[in-house]
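Subject line: Sequence and fold of a protein, written as structure tokens
Area: Proteins and the way their chains fold up in space.
Start of record: The labelled sequence and token lines come straight after this line.
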Amino acid sequence: MRQGLRRALGGLMLSAFFTGAGWAQENGVWVQVEAQPTLSRATDRARAYASELENVNGYALGSGWYAVALGPYSSADAQTLLTQLRRNRTIPSDSYIVDGGQFRTQFWPIGVGAATTPQPLPGTAETPDVDVSTLASADEVSTPEQEVVVIAQPDETVREARQSEAELDRSEKELLQIALQWAGFYTAAIDGSFGRGTRGAMSDWQAANNFEPTGVLTTLQRRVLIDAYNAVLDGMDLQLVRDEATGIEMQIPTGVVAFAAYAPPFARFEATGDIDATVLLISQPGDQDRLFGLYEILQTLEVIPPEGPRERRNSSFTLEGIDGERHSFITASLENGEIKGYALIWPAGDSERRGRVLAEMQASFTRIDGVLDPGLATPGEEQAVDLVSGLAVRKPLLSRSGFYIDDRGTVLTTLEAVSGCGEVIIDGAHVADVVHTDADLGLAVLRSQDRIAPLDVAAFQTGVPRLQAAVAVAGYPYGGLLASPAVTFGTLADIRGLNGEEEVKRLEIMAQEGDAGGPVLDNGGAVLGMLMPKEARSGQVLPPEVSYSVDADEIMASLDAAGIGYRTTASVQATTPEMLTREAGDITVLVSCWE
């Protein structure tokens, strides 16, 4: 983004940009009550004064500060008002009178031009000889309602409009083009150059808004255009927040979010009203490995939908997630051993306002000294294994087990693990396609979309096992809560089902729901079959210690029919439980079903 555009968006987004200032002494003087270093703070202070006082105006100063002033008044009236308001402590004691020579762009009132001639003192008739020093304070009297007469400002001629336009700087011209683009009249580059395309867009906008289509916007028309452009930000109350703990300064929509907690690496700002928005400031010490790790972890968060563009570079990343509930944007970068960034999570269907708020945040994001202390947060009851720094981790519809059957990383699992899934993930990282299913046996075969190199591959046992032989099931009994598979030991109760089914074996083993799809192993590590889901069979609910597995011969026949290769073994050599557990961990995978 061009530097001029960044200045326009970052510093003056909420103001009415194009009102003339630089008043001469003969046009009156002002009582300057405050000066603030940021536009947002000055706007807040002007709004507060305007709720109690009349003729409150705000102007940018040439020094980069923003003044709140009362006026204009004649010199005598200004001195009288200054004395009275100081005495009543309505304004600061260090307020003083200025001639307005430093006033530049007007930012308050928004969308309303300031008076150009000295105004009568509050509570007086429009005559200069009324002494307001005898007036009671605003707390002591009530002013009767008065009829307000609005006098339309005379508009400019084309020549005058060109003259006022010539006083605009490049950033102000770029903002006009941005506003015309937003209104749907401009499609060319944002360059601050008013060529044929810009003039045509201005003319079209004028015609659509009942102005004479001259192709040159007057001061009033420019203000109308900018006010319409900024109307979408009403209620956002964008404030420049300087957070010393995170070392970040940035515009934040304080009208819809408020600071909630530090939960390293985040400072969380959560919704305060009807708009379900969240802002995160990201700050932590680290290197490239930690930056890349953060990139991976963030994609597991529930507030970051899985669909959307993602980009990771050597020292930065950007994530965008979009679904029917929310539109999330998150970015971070590494500089001098510090990882800093931010996130905006916004409700879906409000793209225009979300885009404008995000543009403000992007343009104003500034690194300052400091980085969030990883030990700042204290443990609390909100801790949970499915939370990352207080934010819920995205969870699958269900998770089951599976195991590798060839060197390409082909996985055998239960059909239950892939039924009704929008996406199937192997080991939380590899998107997989279903390449074969067998409804009769209840199995499915998966193949990763990217290349996987398994540590080991299962081998199916071709021999007939002995009854009451020791067996083991490898799997993820609690879904993804465990980082590695668990092995549960039991015995082979029967080589048939309870009703004599030849295609299954009956096991006496305390297997869990998540173990379904995992390999059933003999005491040498060969695969006797695949554990089936524990479901009612023939209307009967099995006891917790009874499970079934699909017989290895039936599995191999199904794989042969589908043209899928596999390994076999006739070895019956036993191994130790420790070795069996290690070997089972190398072939077993977590299979997750996502929407």
Notes: DSSP finds eleven helices and 31 strands in the chain. Residues 1-25, 126-154, 380-387 have pLDDT under 50 and may be disordered. The two ends are 36 Å apart (CA to CA).
